[in-house]
Amino acid sequence: MKKHTLVVLAAGMGSRYGGLKQLDTMSDEGDTIIDFSLYDAIEAGFSKVVFIIREEFKERFVEIFDEKLKGKIEVAYVFQELHKIPSGYEVHPDRVKPWGTGHATLMAQEEITGNFCLINGDDFYSRGAFQTMIQELDSLDENSYDMCMVGYNLKNTLSDNGFVSRGECFVNNANELIEITERLHIERVDGKILRKDESGALVSMLENTIVSMNFWGFTPKYLEVVEEAFHLFLKERSLELKSEFFIPSVVNTILKSKLGKVKVLTSDAKWMGVTYAEDRATVVQEVARLKKESIYPKNLWR
Q1: Average pLDDT value over all residues in the chain
Q2: DSSP state of 141
Q3: What HEC string does 5-64 produce?
Q4: Distance between CA atoms of 275 and 21, rounded to whole angstroms?
């Protein structure tokens, strides 16, 4: 098996959650959601993890993860900050947030060799999804622009406590992604799943719509496209207060130019994550169940 890297997006501030949700504990043993992703990734065969974080949080991440991961997987930290952009671009003086998930990926560029997987730090994906992903990464040609992603049924990815953002995936009969559209406001209302369109009107969505949870598999060629696309983004939108450079926009660029394809790997797992503080109780309960049923050991790292 080839050596593959897991890249963890963990620089978000958790504005809707009310704190740094990536490091919030979800069990009596002190497990974070990231711990379960790391455990599953190591079991699947990943050999390196790169955390994309804010520099101010490095000490806390090192304290939590370095000792438990020692001897199990190589660990690296990179920092996503507002000022880490190419020179020559003006920025809105009141802007405080970095530039989104596409920008975050670039921060890890020097730590990535070969094919890699990228995930959110606050989402639980399931062990089977990591096993499926690493098998697909093994088959991807490092010199191609081909990609893969794990898609989830929309009905399994909603919060009971408010709206969520998801990438709506349009998939052909060959299980290849045609296009992905970022939907920034999806919620269940009176038993129906609704999203807001650009005008703010509510539009219904099917429960089995395939959505992205930022579980991607890429080759190094993807990073070349990200770099070029980020320059174009900054030329057009660097002065906007809240503009964001998302991974799906880069994926769409590759698809539209016909440089590569995206194989959609599906999972019927139910999402577990913490968009809102109220989500935590559900996650704690589910983690306890998974341990009680021995799907995970009581102490992950012993």
Answers
A1: 92
A2: -
A3: EEEEECCCCCCCCCCCHHHCCCCCCCCCHHHHHHHHHHHHCCCEEEEEECHHHHHHHHHH
A4: 8
- Cα dist from 248 to 87, 191, 283, whole Å: 24, 28, 27
Q: Tell me if 60 sits within 8 A of 97, measured CB to CB.
A: no
pLDDT value of position 11: 85
Q: What is the pLDDT of residues 135-156, one digit of tens each?
A: 999 999 999 999 999 999 999 9
Q: What is the DSSP letter of 176?
A: B
Give the torsion through C-alpha atoms of 173, 178, 184, 190, to 10 deg: -20
Q: Provide the 10 A C-beta neighbour count for residue 237.
A: 15
At residue 13, the pLDDT reads 55
**Which two three-digit tokens encode residue 119?**
């995930």
Q: Quick check: 109 and 7 in contact, CB under 8 A? A: no
Q: What percent of the chain has pLDDT over 90?
A: 81
What is the structure's pLDDT at 23?
A: 85
Mean pLDDT of 270-299: 89
Annotation: CATH topology of 5-292 = Spore Coat Polysaccharide Biosynthesis Protein SpsA; Chain A (3.90.550)
Looking at this protein, which amino acid is placed at residue 27?
S
Q: Tokens standing for 240?
A: 């906007």
Q: What is the mean pLDDT of residues 201-225?
A: 95
Structure tokens given for 20: 């740094």
Q: Widest CA span of the chain, in angstroms?
A: 55
